[in-house]
Amino acid sequence: MLQRLAAVAVLVPSYDEGLAFFRDVLGFAVLEDAPLGSDKRWIVVAASQRAGAALVLAVPSDERQRARLGDQTGGRVGFFLHSADFWGDYETMRSRGVRFLETPRREPYGLVAVFLDPWGGKWDLLQPADRPGEIP
């Protein structure tokens, strides 16, 4: 059986705040934005139109979910943004106010730096070592 992971939900405080970060700061493409009624929307974003996995922007519907904003993975890095131009993306993100938690470093798997989304979620910006200059 052939399968692929299509999307993962990420909690955002509001659809507009989610779009402001993913679309306007990170430059993600909006793949879908459809009203579902009762102020709900189906918003899917991805690093590019042809990116593998996408994110579904999900607004918390109760206190339990609101408490998980920015901590969906228990404080560890939970999202991995691959880059074909680490230094270009790093500088662009910094100029747009993205907060990096560390100085970029080389690891056996690539060039990496951890950054935070506006709600405290941890991400790796990563240029894989095995494919410099291209996104796997």
Fill in the keyword field for this structure.
136 residues, single chain, globular, 4-stranded mixed β-sheet, 3 helices, alpha+beta
Layout of strands and helices, then pairs:
Blueprint: E1 7-11, H1 15-25, E2 29-37, E3 40-46, E4 54-58, H2 63-67, E5 79-82, H3 86-95, E6 99-100, E7 105-107, E8 110-116, E9 122-128
Parallel strand pairs: 1-4, 5-9
Antiparallel strand pairs: 2-3, 3-4, 6-8, 7-8, 8-9
Quick structural overview:
The chain is of the alpha+beta class and 136 residues long. 19% of the residues lie in helices and 36% in strands.
Q: Can you describe this structure?
A:
It is a single chain. This protein starts with 6 loop residues before the first strand and ends in an 8-residue tail after the last strand. It is globular. It has three helices and nine strands. With 136 residues, the chain is α+β, with helices and mostly antiparallel strands. The protein has helices spanning 15-25, 63-67, 86-95; strands at 7-11, 29-37, 40-46, 54-58, 79-82, 99-100, 105-107, 110-116, 122-128.
